[in-house]
Predict the 3D structure of the following.
Amino acid sequence: MHPTAHAPERPRASTAQAALAHFIPAVLGLGLLALIGFVPYPAVHDAFHDVRHTAGFPCH
Amino acid sequence: MRAVIAAAVVAGVPAGLLYAAAAYGIALPVLLEAEVFETGLHAAHDAHALYVSAGAAGAGRLWWGLAGAVGLGCALALVLTPLVRAAGHGRPPGWRAGAVVGALAFLTVFLLPMLVTRPGPPGVENTAVLGARQGAWVLSLLLFAAAWWIGTWVRARLTRSGRGTGAAALGGVAVGIAAWALGMGLYLGLTGYAPGAAPGPVPDAVAHRFGAAMVLANALLCAALGALIPPALRRFAP
């Protein structure tokens, strides 16, 4: 009787790792959104002025 | 995590480029038209150093606008891609998941905040101060998240009590909308926050055309993200 061949199991990410894989990109996205839409420094405001108005972010 | 970020960037960059095309083609001409009226309003105000002159769009302004549009596309994609992936519950996301998330993004990030911040083109002064409007924008987002949670809870309760799927979903949506409106109403009532366009030199017709251009460009961005995120996830994070 031949032993049943088992395919090697792929390591499963832990629940915490899976949560981080979703959480960290979202935090990066929110940070980038804050930079483009909300940071009040004049140079940043001027650089992204048109996008802020078009996207409806409060501008000035 | 790298796969999710890669999928987000692969979806966000072309969506941002499309947004830039829509913004330059539809919104920028109206924005420049409004700025002609703004020139007199902000004579000593910051001269928007990267601009060439009112009525003109210099290279620096266009490049930064492009960078901002692509950055906005990537920023939203970074937030939405994990949501689309989670909505699949382990299965590859289909076009429906992308469509729903794109529609929700348009509602949450653009439409609802516009109701409470009343944005306008340059030259249209707002009756509410900038800080209050930015706070209202963030509050709208947080209230939406809370309303989503409440609506989901209501839908689950209605389903368990024997209501049909459609009725339960409608009930959840109605309660969620009511929760958002109640929270925002409390904020308006308690703080006296009252945004709106102050009388100024920009004609109403220009302001209205800019509003329509905003809605169209932002809807295109969200539609593009909804269309591009699922295939990007299937390619990079199956």
